[in-house]
Design a protein that fits this description.
The chain is of the alpha+beta class and 169 residues long. Helix content is 24%, strand content 38%. The longest helix has 13 residues. The model has no long low-confidence stretch (mean pLDDT 95).
């Protein structure tokens, strides 16, 4: 079960994740970027059965369960998706991301975090690999091959890290 929320992130009622995606109901999702102590970005490539199949996306992302805090969801999702247990994190911000993808209407209230960790990731079935990019490498790859990155990642970068969308030449 998940909480359906309003634009102020106030809980309206509970429903299933499937029902929320069927009806396009707004619900909370945690997203986290991972950076190491050198400032490099760690991104994962999504498995073929995922919504951004074969594309690079944020390494941590998942639904906040009904009654669960954003921080508890972050800790749970980080462990499930990357194997990280003990890490530093900070809140980056929040925004609504809505789209129609793989037969569902996603209407997510993204709560975005930045995790700092030098640990190797242990990926679950949702990702096939992870890659480390310096900021300059990430800017270049985004410029040269934007199709390699998922839509939600672009929305997040555009909102909080717009400098990554421009490349000095």
């Amino acid at each position: 079960m998940i909480d359906v929320v309003d634009l102020d992130c106030k809980v309206l009622h509970k429903t299933t994740k499937g029902e929320a995606h069927k009806k396009g109901l707004l619900h909370r999702t945690v997203i986290a970027e991972i950076r190491n102590s050198k400032g490099e970005w760690l991104l994962v490539k999504q498995s073929p059965d995922r919504q951004d199949a074969g594309q690079y996306v944020s390494p941590v992302g998942g639904h906040v369960q009904a009654g669960e805090s954003d921080e508890a969801a972050l800790l749970r999702e980080a462990f499930e998706e990357t194997g990280l247990i003990d890490f530093a994190y900070e809140t980056v911000g929040k925004f609504v991301f809505e789209r129609h993808v793989i037969g569902r209407h996603e209407n997510h209230y993204f709560i975005v975090f930045k995790i700092t960790s030098d640990e190797d990731l242990v990926l679950n079935h949702e990702s096939v690999e992870y890659v480390t990019f310096s900021e300059e490498q990430l800017k270049q790859r985004i410029q040269e091959a934007p199709h390699q990155f998922g839509d939600a990642f672009f929305a997040l970068v555009g909102r909080f890290y717009p400098h990554l969308l421009t490349v000095e030449r």
